[in-house]
Design brief:
This protein is α+β, with helices and mostly antiparallel strands. 46% of the residues lie in helices and 21% in strands. The protein contains 11 helices and 10 strands.
Length: 322
């Protein structure tokens, strides 16, 4: 092989190696997360309703995803209004704490751990996480206001087993999938994003910033303040990241829509449509979000965008890819 073809061959090998390393690095910054589908939620509720109909007791049922967001809700005839609320609260609590609410109730009442109570959750028996291969993919809660004779818990557990078996294996194939998988940020990725924003702020001599990274469910992953950051800067950074994740769009876009009164929903439901927050899309998956607060002018936006570009050069922060 002559010197020129050899040099070209080496250059190709180096390029391939660099591409492979970049791909491996990106993969290490993302992980797969599974959630139950609306179809699975419907099957869970139908299984429990069959038991309630057979045994003649009223019941309200709620199914959430792994973060506690409501996926499906339904009642039979008969439950009181508050019963539906308790079903939702039980499901959310089971999802967030990754354990049965009956177990949480026991721990709270024995004063082993009263955190669920003090944090405003609902540690009352009747909620169960849905676990598949060691991963919580959702949760289900039942409310019957004591009219089931204790059968509401059995109803939920039986429904989960009927749809997902013992949870040790992947669920059986059916006409529609029971689980959906998506990419999400890892804690390592969150740390890199925060560090990249701090480095950019240092380079530009921006001061007193708060920087927050959340996952796709708006759960806090990483949080940092630069020197001089006020509590307001730190608080707004977190609110911006959470809002960008909730709405899956930059908070500057929401800010514009709210101020032009095109859509004031973010304001009305307690989100924070202030520039400085960005969702992070890898392909079709919104993998997380970053927020920066406390800087001057557009510095928040610049820092957050620079961090995303440094860690995920191929990411998008705009509307969800089609």
């Amino acid at each position: 092989m002559t010197r020129r073809p050899l040099a070209a061959f080496i250059a190709v090998c180096i390029a391939v190696s660099m591409a492979a390393n970049a791909q491996a690095q990106t993969q290490s910054l993302l992980s797969d997360k599974r959630d139950l589908t609306p179809y699975a939620a419907r099957k869970l509720m139908d299984a429990c309703f069959a038991m309630a109909t057979r045994d003649h007791f009223p019941i309200a049922l709620a199914v959430t995803d792994s973060a506690g967001n409501l996926v499906a809700y339904q009642t039979t005839d008969g439950p009181m209004a508050h019963t539906g609320l308790t079903a939702q609260l039980k499901a959310k609590t089971a999802a967030v704490f990754r354990r049965a609410t009956g177990e949480l109730s026991d721990r709270v009442n024995k004063q082993i751990n009263r955190a669920p109570e003090w944090m405003g959750y609902f540690p009352i028996a009747g909620g169960f996480p849905v676990v598949v291969q060691g991963e919580v993919v959702g949760a289900m809660g039942a409310g019957s206001a004591g009219l089931s004779g204790g059968k509401d818990e059995d109803c939920v557990q039986s429904a989960i087993r009927s749809v997902f078996g013992d949870g040790k294996a992947a669920p059986p194939a059916g006409p529609q999938p029971l689980l959906v998988s998506r990419k999400v940020l890892t804690p390592a990725a969150a740390r890199k994003l925060v560090d990249a924003c701090v480095a950019y702020a240092d380079q530009k001599k921006y001061t007193a910033l708060g920087i927050t990274v959340v996952d796709a469910d708006a759960t806090l992953l990483a949080f940092q303040g630069t020197e001089g950051a006020t509590k307001t800067a730190l608080d707004t950074a977190q609110l911006k990241a959470e809002t960008a994740a909730h709405w899956q769009r930059p908070t500057a876009e929401l800010w514009d829509r709210v101020n032009k009164q095109v859509n004031r929903a973010p304001e009305f439901i307690g989100d924070f449509p202030q520039p400085g927050g960005f969702p992070i899309f890898m392909g079709k998956d919104m993998v997380g979000a970053i927020g920066a607060g406390g800087a001057v002018g557009n510095q928040d936006d610049e820092c957050a965008q620079a961090a995303i570009k440094a860690v995920f050069p191929n990411a998008s922060t705009g509307a969800k890819a089609s």
